[in-house]
Amino acid sequence: MPQSRGMEANDTALRAHYELGMERQRLSDGRGELEFTRTTEIVERRLPAAPAVVADIGGGPGRYALWLASLGYQVEHRDLMPLHVEQLTADAAGVTGIRTAVGDARDLDLPDASVDAVLLLGPLYHLTDRAERVGALRECARIVRPGGPVFAAVISRWAVRVDGTLRERLYLKYPAAAGLVDEIDRTGLFPPLAEGAFTSFPDMAQYRFPAFPCRYVVHNRMDNEAKIGRTFPWNNAFQYHVSKKLWPEIETNYTRFQDGPNRGKTQVFMTPGILFGNFHVGKRLSLNFGGGFQVATTRFHVNNHNGIFTVRFPF
């Protein structure tokens, strides 16, 4: 892909920064460890089942590639930096399922529709030209099979104001930073503040992704469907009438996971408990309430040993 002089200059600064070797430990402690944990939690919700093929594009020294391989995935790792490829090659010695090579997110060497999912967790905010960002997304859409997810990490243009100013207090180490915040908010371009840094593009909060035949996963929703997938539940209760208002019972709770990270798995709980009722609250409506203790009876379960409180309205 032809590059302008500006793009070439930024590539040179980017390479000089990553040649320092600091990226290898960035995700291993403190805020980096939090980033890694949160990212893997989001990615795992939408990944197809192992041993699917996942492309880790711009994967750095390979922390995510190693994580994917540990889950049984086949990984195609590409990074712009030969140093990162060398580091992953050393760290992956004896690990099966990882192929790594030097590669550019804007011009990948992988065949069309050759992978089941793509991680694009680094390149977008390094590409200051819109055409290059779109080109990187097009490459992801080209190599992923139709309908496969593309996980794209982006940075809000407000990150410098919120994180850089309030938390990191960049203005203390780099006084010039205080005068740049308004301009960064306006343009989305974050210029280098010191030697060894590079221009980044934290302007993706409202970026409109092209309509390619793949699924972009760029959010971090916390709803239950995104977290555990769709489920098919079924309950049966066996009750015995001891006295006028006392009903001991045992309930079975069956859940089949239709998709998500637990796709195809089943969990069953037994819940011994007791109900009190019926208390009539209308001509045909009654009130029951009670509680129980839920115990998993299958090896797979997402939780166990839960106290249960229930309110029921028979009619």
- Oligomer category: single chain
CATH class of the largest domain: Alpha Beta
Q: Which H/E pattern describes the elements? A: HHEHEHEEHEHHHEHEEEEE
Report the C-alpha radius of gyration, rounded.
26 Å
Q: Can you describe this structure in just a few lines?
A:
With 315 residues, the chain is an alpha/beta fold. The protein is built from nine helices and eleven strands. It has two domains: 5-154 and 204-220, Rossmann fold; 229-312, no CATH class.
Q: Main traits of this protein?
A:
single chain; 315 residues; alpha/beta; Rossmann fold; 2 domains; 6-stranded parallel beta sheet; 5-stranded antiparallel beta sheet; 9 helices; 28% helix; elongated; disordered N terminus
Task: Please describe what this structure looks like.
The structure is a single chain. By secondary structure, the protein is an alpha/beta fold. The chain has 9 helices and 11 strands. The strands form 2 sheets. Strands 3-2-1-4-5-6 form a 6-stranded parallel beta sheet, with helices on both faces. A hairpin with a 5-residue loop joins β9 and β10. The chain starts with a helix and ends with a strand.
Q: Secondary-structure blueprint of this entry?
A:
Elements lengths: L4 H14 L11 H17 L6 E5 L5 H8 L3 E6 L2 H10 L6 E5 L14 E4 L9 H14 L5 E4 L6 H9 L2 H4 L7 H7 L27 E3 L6 H5 L2 E9 L6 E12 L8 E15 L5 E11 L9 E7 L3
Parallel strand pairs: 1-2, 1-4, 2-3, 4-5, 5-6
Antiparallel strand pairs: 7-8, 8-9, 9-10, 10-11
